[in-house]
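User: Last request for today: this protein with iron/sulfur cluster, please.
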Amino acid sequence: MNVFDPEVLGRCMSCGFCLPACPTYALTGDEASSPRGRITLMRGIEDGTVSLFDPAVQEQASMCLGCRACEPVCPAGVSYGLLLEQWRDTAWRGRDTPWLVRPLLALTRHDLVLRVLGRLRRHARPGPRRHPGPHLLLGCVERVLFPGVSRAARAVDPDLQPGRGPGCCGALHAHNGRLGEGEAMARALGDRLPGTIVTTSGGCAAHLAGVLGRDRVAELSEWIVRRGLLPPARTGQARPRVAIQDSCHLRNGLGVSATIRTAVGAVAEIVELPSARDCCGAAGTYSLLRPRESARIIAPKVREIADAGVDLVVTVNPGCQRQLRTAVRRAGLEVEVVHLAELMAGQR
Ligand code: SF4
Ligand code: SF4
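Assistant: Here's the final one, the structure of the complex with iron/sulfur cluster:
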């Protein structure tokens, strides 16, 4: 079969350095649930010795979080995230598309529906048409679930113009078996929003940068630091104790984590969680598709948050924000989960 990029697949030398970084391998201890095990399956699919639609193979395509924690530790530079997208692009087609994913993909295709829902939820008011930028990406999930994030981002930098036009960048589609469509959505968004696109979602930042080019995209913390928008140091005021949850695709795909700490450190005392860099189990649609594994993955993180005695947890991605807020609430912790934009704008 011609499912995978042969050059990327060929890079893996089966060294196993990626195994300790993989959350699903940590859950199962099973080689098949590790990056190396999945790459072995991919090679079998490619040479025809393994069926793409074998239930055990489909199980591995589904169980993988797509967190890309296996990428930064890989000495051969295997772009595992791309291989997973290519895998699902063939395996999650037609009746094999998980049924829970279908309505989400359909909803995020409809710009009008997103616009109406977002306006009802009072996200930041869109800027003028044909603005040269910088544009603030209102997104799809975020504009509906967390409309205050775009308002806070504008409070941090009033020059950011909330972008009109397509709501979804296509990351959701690219990660869920619609790679070509996801890339086309990103290109359409890039055409409608010329110049720099600033996003408050780590997942969108990584997807857009992959399609439009790194120089077109800035995640909010990068933007804050680059533009010198850090507030002046205040003395004599109590600073909240804040834990940070990295975004997997932002950290593992774009290598962005230091600017988040620079921004948070300007207004708060950072308490690093041992698992700050590890996936929270939200992983796009993962918490919907695999709720049991998702709950097992976030459980130790919630215990760390409880032990750390923090006032806030800061996230840089709407999926993480929803996942952590739900988990913290269920655990009965008196800890707020906020977006970086809300912390920086003092809106929490
Ligand atoms: S670390 Fe990289 S080269 Fe080694 S097994 Fe994992 S994916 Fe393959
Ligand atoms: S993307 Fe995450 S869950 Fe999937 S193989 Fe890599 S480290 Fe494991």
